[in-house]
Every structure is written in structure tokens, then in C-alpha cells.
What we know:
The complex is a heterodimer of chains A (227) and B (235).
Chain A: H1 2-47, H2 62-79, E1 85-89, E2 94-99, E3 102-108, E4 111-112, E5 115-119, E6 123-127, E7 132-135, E8 138-141, E9 144-146, H3 149-153, E10 168-170, E11 176-181, E12 184-187, E13 198-200, E14 204-205, H4 208-217, E15 223-226
Parallel strand pairs in A: 1-15, 4-13, 12-14
Antiparallel strand pairs in A: 1-2, 2-3, 5-6, 7-15, 8-11, 9-10, 11-12
Chain B: H1 2-27, H2 43-62, E1 68-72, E2 77-82, E3 85-91, E4 94-96, H3 106-113, E5 117-124, E6 132-136, E7 143-144, E8 155-160, E9 165-171, H4 184-198, E10 208-214, H5 215-224, E11 230-234
Parallel strand pairs in B: 1-11, 9-10
Antiparallel strand pairs in B: 1-2, 2-3, 4-10, 5-8, 5-11, 6-7, 8-9
Helix pairs in contact in B: 2-3
Amino acid sequence: MEKETRKRTLIIGAWTLVVAFCFFCLIFGFFIWIPTIQYTYFQKKLSHVDAVDTVVYPQVSLANLKETTALLEAKLEKMNPVRAYIVINTSENTFKLFKNKKLIRSGICSTGSLVELEVENEKKWVFETPKGVFTVKGKVTNPVWRKPDWAFAEEGLPIPSANDPSRYEYGVLGDFALSIGNGYLIHGTLYQRFLGLAVTHGCVRLNDADLEIVYETLPLGAQVFIY
Amino acid sequence: MGFLGLMIIIYGFYSIQKTHQAAQRILSTEQVENPLNMDWNDGDIRTAYKQNIWLKNQLALSRETVMSLGINLKDSIIQIQLNGLALIQSPIYHYQPENFLSEMPAPVYSAFFGTPASILHEYSNIPKRPIRKKKVIPGAETVEEKVDTISPAFHWEFMMDHQLKVVINTLKSVNDSVLEAPNLAKDKFRYHFIQAFENQDSLGYYPVLFLWIKETETKALYRALPEHAKVILRN
């Protein structure tokens, strides 16, 4: 009796395994094999295109194609900046400085924190470093920070008048600053330990050594690429 | 079991029919160029022609004022370009299917890849702009939104207007120089499984290109691109 029961259990167990295996194969087939078959069929279908007897085009040779390639490459090459430029990565908070199409400096920076500041349910500011291509519009040594309204709002302080002396802070932007327009600057920082993090109000912060090289390398009108 | 097998077979035939319709739709579109008078069987001519298309597309995109995406399967590079300059160039560690849509003659290649495509819709499990809200009430405590520090593996997929989909799976860094090994079959299975139950258009066919790229670089690519960005592809 015991032997019979054991035998039955073994058979049921084996059948369960077989059914489970078949079920697994079917499910796998449903989500892997059928898409693969579809793709293969699609590619085969597209590869059989009958030539259409219409206008006879001039023969295109490898030499023609290579000549066109060279022309196109030259055109693209001309579009690359000739003078120094900088590329800023706001996702990883890094920068790369190029001169004569060669990378001459790279390092970490700080960019916009992506914080949306809301004050008294009325005013809102978003601290984001803008993306795109900009140009260096101004260069300053020993820059003075003219604090915008959000700098007061963020601290819960009343916003002073436009020319109030409390608007001006000295020594917080480092030794140099480059303006890229709309109030955005590339400047230094007192908070060197936060470099590499997205903590700014939109400007790009560099450490002192990197900032000096960037300041000396980028002339007015140099391109600043930010992504 | 038999019933399930029958369902699979019927679904298989239906899938093939949808694929046939998709192929017919592409073959019936007006060709961008009709360069039939070249020896397409010559590998060098084919490579040179594809390179020309790639460069023409880059030049076309260089006139735009927004960033665009370039996927170069031949050199296994994915890049963001602006004003003709490649801002980021990241390696594509794996892609499938291998030789993606490589068996197509010149007119069909032109129709598919001859001009830049636009992203119709995209999906990702992280926001493009991860804005955090901060409220300041004078005299009261500042309230700032908490950031979830545990982030899931980044996943990004987008459909282009010439009915081609790109699914980007990411690879995390194990240490400075080593990336985790990808599980290609698992990633593809998960995609098709989710598509079958969530996507309303899952029964219409479009080719899908799977890419595996380093996670940090993919996030930079994703956040750099605007909505409905232009994409160029070279196989």
C-alpha cells in the first residue's frame, strides 16, 4: 500500500514538473519567440523590394560617394567652434573646457538645484541652470553679488528696494565671473565642499583653480554649451 | 494546455499579419531618394551611402536651435548634438537585434533613416526635470519636499514618427571601471511582457531597438533632450 502511494506521488510530481515546464516554454515563446519571428519576417519583407523602372539615374560610384562624404565632413567640421568653448553637464555636475578643439581641462562644478521656491503662496522661482548654447557676454574680476529678490525671500526676509545696500555682497562669487546672459554667471564659491552637487540657484560654480583657467581661456563671445 | 497552445498559435498568426501590414505600409510610402542605380550589393558602396545619409542628417540638425539625439549602431555610439557639435558621446555596450534592420535595400533605408525622425511619445521612470518644491512662510518653518534617495534602475523608451521604437536599458557601475553585466533576455522579456498587458497598441507591429548604456550617461542624455526631440539613426 505504501509502495503504491509513493509511486502515485512520484508520478503526480513528475507530471506536475512536465506541465510546469511546458507552461514556462509557452509563456517564454509568447513574449520572446513571437516578437523575434515578427522582427525576422519584417526584415525579410523589407529586403525584397522590386526595382522600379522609372527615370534612369546617373550611375553612383564609390568615388562619387566618397567625394560627397569628404564634402559633408568638411561642412560639419566648419560648424565646430574654432575658438575655446566650454561644455557643462548639469546631470553629473561636470564641465569640459576645449581650446583649439582639444580638451584642456575638465572637472566638477555645481549647477541649479531644481528647487521651486514658493513664498507666501504668491511668488515662485525655479532654480535651474538653463540648457542650450550661450555666449560669454561679460567678464569681471572680483565680482560683487547683487542679491536678487529670491535671496531674501528664501530666508524669510522682507525684499528691500532695488538699490538698497543690503543687496550687495562682496567676496562670495570668487575671484572671477563670466556672464552668459539673463543673470546667469559662471563664478567661484565659498562652498567648495558642495562642488559636484546640484545646489545653486541657476549659476554654475567652479573651484578657484578651474575658474581661473576658464576665465583666462574663454574670450568674450566664446560659446558655452549646457545640457 | 492544449487550449493555451491553440491561443498561442492563433496569436502568432495574428502577429504575423500585423507585421505584414506594417511592412506594406512602409513599402508604400514615397521614397526619400531613389538611388537604385548603384551596386547595393557592394559593401563599400553601402557603407559609404549610409555614412552620407548620417552626415546629411547631422548637418540638417545643426541648423536647429535645440539638442537632438544621434544613434550610431555602426560605431556603437549614442550622442547628443547641438549646432553640429557632439556634446556627449556615450558607448552603446550592447544592442539587439544585432545588425538592426541591416537587410534592407537603398530605397527602404532612405525611407527609414534618410531624414531625422521625431520622438512622438516617450516614457521613463524618472522625471525630466526633478523639481523639488520649497515653501517659505515668514515667521514659520520652511517646508521642503523630501527626495527619495533610493532610485530604481533607470529605464527609458520612446517611439519615433517613422514607427520605430527604441528601448534603453541601463547598466549600473559596480566600481569605477566595471559595469554590471546586462541580462539581455530578461530585459527584453520584461519589456514584451509589460507591453502585452499595458500598451493599447500592443497588437500593432513596429520594430524595437534595444540598447544597453551606462546609467549615469543615459540620465544625462534623457534630461538634455527637449520634448519631441529629433533623432537620427545609422545602422
